[in-house]
Amino acid sequence: MGTASLLSSARALLRVRSRLARECLAELLAVFVLIVSGAGAGSQMVTSEEEKGNNITAYLAGSLAVMVAVYTAGGVSGAHLNPAVSLAMCLLEQFPWWKFPIFVVVQTLGAFIASAAVYALYYDAIWHYSNGTLTTSGPQETASIFATYPADYLSLSSGFLDQVLGTAMLLVGILAIMDPQNKGVPKGLEPVVVALLVLSIEVSMGSNCGCPMNPARDLGPRLFTYVAGWGPEVFRWVKGRGRGVGGLG
User: Does the keyword Repeat apply (predicted)?
Assistant: First the structure.
């Protein structure tokens, strides 16, 4: 009886009563799940020199991470996970504008924290693979584990088009899946279908920029690499960046 009372008191103490706070925590946790799996797959692929992973496994990990992240936060915040999704919801008057900057900050923070977790998890592997130097270009670069970088052949205009079209495909697919006027997805399977949508975009549009489709997904990890030792080069358009695997998912 005493234990039950103690647990009840603990639950009451830890309960978050603010709806906004619950939504922010849900977004933070969901983005954390998304990045840990996505960047973790990229780290495993790069540091093992593709002996323990390749582009296909990274695509699958990123897509499955989307599914788990949507299940994690869908019932609380709607699982936006992405400033582009939040912006689309605002434009469609399905989300209040005053929450938009809050969600963007929380999503970016979640990506930053998750990048730190992946770095800690693969710390030894990253330093071993890079021969003790954190670089953003060259054969032993590791920055692309976390953020996305353009392929060597890509121009700025083509990179812009790539991201606009990829993000547009994502948003059109999500809105179509959630539209009650369309042929409905079986209840509870929406995250699975969204994950398949992400997978289809990755395998068809991932070679130019790594297919981030998510400003927070790219900016949070990029900020982390900046402060973790890769330096300001992570914000520059430089040839020879590697595979840009950090954006998968």
Answer: yes
Structure pTM?
Answer: 0.89
Residues making up the chain, counted from first to last? 249
- Of all residues in the chain, the percent with pLDDT exceeding 70 is 89
Burial classification of residue 116, based on how many CB atoms lie within 10 Å of its CB (0-12 exposed, 13-18 middle, 19 or more buried): middle
CA distance 102 to 111: 14
Instruction: Report the CATH fold assignment for 19-233.
Output: Glycerol uptake facilitator protein (1.20.1080)
**Rounded mean pLDDT of 3-16?**
65
Burial track 227-241 (b if 16+ CB lie within 10 A, e otherwise):
ebebeebbeeeeeeb
The residues spanned by each domain of the chain are 19-233
Q: How do residues 172-192 score in pLDDT, each as one tens digit?
A: 999 999 888 888 788 889 999
